[in-house]
Amino acid sequence: MFRYCFRRVLIMIPTMFFVIFIVLGLMNLTPGSPALMILGQDATPEMVEQLNRELGYDQPFFMRYITYVSSLFSGDMGRSYRTKRPVFTEIESRLPTTVKLSVSVIILVVLIAIPIGTFSAVRQYSTFDTVGTMTALFFACIPAFWLGLMLILVFSLKLGLLPSFGTDTWAHFILPAFTQAIPQSARSMRLTRTTVLETIRQDYIRTARAKGQGEFKVILNHALKNALMPIITILGVDFGFILGGTIVVERVFSINGIGLLILDAIQVKDIPLVTGCAIIFAGLYMLVLLMVDVLYAFIDPRVKARYQRKASMGGML
């Protein structure tokens, strides 16, 4: 297992280089220059050219890419064009907020999608299954920004129960978390239902029932446990969508997280800050996918035995 994790971490390095190349390339293709964004339209060409030279934007693209990667090896993510502060300092102050929001969303998705999807599969074609399926299809089509605005209108403005902006207390995370979790839960619930349906039709489920085991025990210990593999996989993939969705949610609820930071940085073409935020997003996503692969070994004994067999063969060699 340790060797597998070590190899996965090594694979992250070239992946990160590719992410940096794509982000810098896209920022290079956007119109305008950082100096023009900073100085404004009234700046003279000489002033723009001088500031671009100071920022290093006058160099060719590949030279800027190599310079950035070289600096990254020494732990330097550059300085923000707008604030002149280190990029890591800018991100460090906002990273906990985005992580709290993302973790809250994924917990809500698990608590909502898995129980409802499992019960819908067990009670296939029942009233609960029909209503749950129609509700899931409805919420899966709702844009997050519209749902967030409706939640603010109802629970903040009309009822006055929850705050509509900020992150001062745990109550400030309720509306943003549900704004992302509800559409995501709808999609995950449909996958859970389909996976559990396929599992409960297997021969070993019928054998467990024939041995006299209770229905709840059969579903919990046999069906759901074996159906968790694809569910955990899709939850890991969904984490990437959740991270991307924080950009919209943080804008709607005025949350000072990385999503709002990268959005503001893109508008002023703050290339070091945009690249640094993209590195953090990509790193978190790859770490979550690694955690999903590790969870496989705890859920499925066959995966754990495969890791142990490869480790023993490596030791023999």
Describe the protein in words:
This protein has 2 domains: 2-92, no CATH class; 95-256, Orthogonal Bundle (MetI-like fold). 79% of the residues lie in helices and 0% in strands. The chain has helices at residues 2-29, 34-39, 45-55, 61-73, 87-92, 95-122, 127-140, 144-158, 174-200, 203-210, 215-252, 258-267, 271-299, 301-316. Helix 1 runs antiparallel to helix 13. The longest helix is centred in the last third of the chain and has 38 residues, at 215-252. 31% of the residues are buried. The mean pLDDT is 79.
In short:
By secondary structure, the protein is an all-alpha fold. The chain has 14 helices and no strands.
Looking at this protein, list some descriptive labels.
0% strand, mainly alpha, MetI-like fold, 317 residues
